[in-house]
Every structure is written in structure tokens, then in C-alpha cells.
Amino acid sequence: MINLEQISGLPMEVDDQYRIKLHPPALQTGPLFFRKFSEMQPVLMDQTTKPPQPETYSVFRGIQLADDVYKIKDNRLSYDVTIIPSLMLGVEFNKTLGHYHEKITGTQYAHPEMYEVLSGKALFFLQKMDPELKNLITILAIEAETGHKVIYPPNYAHIIVNIGNQPLVTANWISTDYKPMYEPIRDRQGMAYYVVPDKHGYKFEKNPKYSEHPVVRMVTVEDTISKQFGFTLQEPMYVTAMRDSMLLEFLNNPKKYAVQLSTIAS
């Protein structure tokens, strides 16, 4: 059992079956889904890998306090929790499937996203390609532990990798208008690099389905949460956002915050 109340600001915990257990006044208004191993197989380094278990991670969408339901809905937001068990997918650490976001109509910006590690140790792996999704431009990797917050800039594909030996639990704020694109990742058998163990903890192995492999740039957590976004490492992002929901305006209007968001990857 992992108690998440203090770190998340919500009365909830993870049970031994990797399910979220909510306590009043917390509730879930969105769907729950489990990522099947068969869905992960197309993005694995070794596609002959045998499944360690039928489901490799789970996502609980629309978690919130009862008093915040209308505020969150009116701001077109969702607070979701993802649980990624500590296991191996063949030679790789367990990870999420990975996707891009479609660009917002009439703009060159896709919806960004904000994450917080509630328990465990994560590696957030992001990559940006040209507008035609043919050539890689930039690759970022961010190590994060409990309490750390990470903002994904617009137009980056992303995965979360559990590089620890305990279940990884993350929360995210995202616009309910976002539309994921999984095909560009599936079509190339995953991201540009795979994350595998080595004597130093982990290393990056090139995915040969990509013609170029920019150097992976390690970014610190502090770099991704600038004070200009109004969030700190000391307070749960749910609590901060519900005190002032305008702090999350950048999730639905990234064009307005283009300069601030660009500093994350600069």
C-alpha cells in the first residue's frame, strides 16, 4: 500500500494490485484503462519478448475532489494518475507506450502537459521531430523522483520509464481537448532510443528505425518548472492549481505562453 495523500493533496492510495483507492471526498469522473502487453509489443526493442504479465501499466483519469469538479470541467482539464510497476519488458525498463499530441487547430502548437511524481523514480524521455515527423530535432531526458514536477513542451513525443525498483506513480494535468497520436511512435518501433539497465543504472540504446540520433540532453527538474509557471517542488500541483486554476492556462493556450514554454527545452 502506498499512501499518496500528503504528496498529492488528495485522499488516495495505491493498493497491492496497483489500483487507486480513493477516499471521500475524492472521486473519479473519467475512465480507467490498462495497457496490455500486446499493445506494447510493437514499440519494444525486442519484439520477441515474452509478457511479464498481461498488463504493464494503468491510467486513472479524472481524479478530483468533489468540490473541484465544476472548476476542473469549466477549465477543460483532467487530473490523471498513472501506475507503472517495476518490471522488465525484455531488456528494457517498463515504460509507457508513447505518443505525440495533435496540433491545436489554427496554430503550430500541440497541447503541453504537466507531470508530478507521486512515488518512485522516473525518467521522462521526450523527442521532437520536424513538422512532417520525418527528422529528429531534439531529445530530452529528465530524471525525477517523488515530489518533482515536469512540464512537457508543445510538439514533443513522450514516454515515462520506471527506472526504479518500486512502482512508479505519476499524476498529470492535461487539457481535455488534447488528441494523442500513437502511430508515429508505433510505426518506428518506439522512440529514438530505448532505456536499458547498465552498471551505472541505465543507458540509451539507439533505435535503428530512426535515421538520425541526436545526443540525449539531460535536463534537470528545476529547469522544467520555472517560477514563471507558479508551481514549486514543495506543494502538490493539484493543490496549487485548485487555488489558482489560471496557472494551468498554458495547457489550453500554449501559443500565449510560447516564450515561457520554449525555455524548458532551451
TrEMBL record:
Single GO term (MF): glucose-6-phosphate isomerase activity
Keywords linked to the UniProt accession: Gluconeogenesis, Glycolysis
Entry's Gene Ontology cellular component terms: cytoplasm
Cross-referenced InterPro entries: G6P_isomerase_prok, RmlC-like_jellyroll, RmlC_Cupin_sf
Catalytic activity: alpha-D-glucose 6-phosphate = beta-D-fructose 6-phosphate
One Gene Ontology term from the biological process aspect of the record: glycolytic process
CDD domains in the cross-refs: cupin_PGI (cd02218)
Domain annotation Glucose-6-phosphate isomerase prokaryote: ranges: 35-202
Gene3D superfamilies named in the record: Jelly Rolls
Entry's EC annotation: 5.3.1.9
Pathway it works in: Carbohydrate degradation; glycolysis; D-glyceraldehyde 3-phosphate and glycerone phosphate from D-glucose: step 2/4
Family named by the database record: Belongs to the archaeal-type GPI family.
Identification of the protein by name: glucose-6-phosphate isomerase
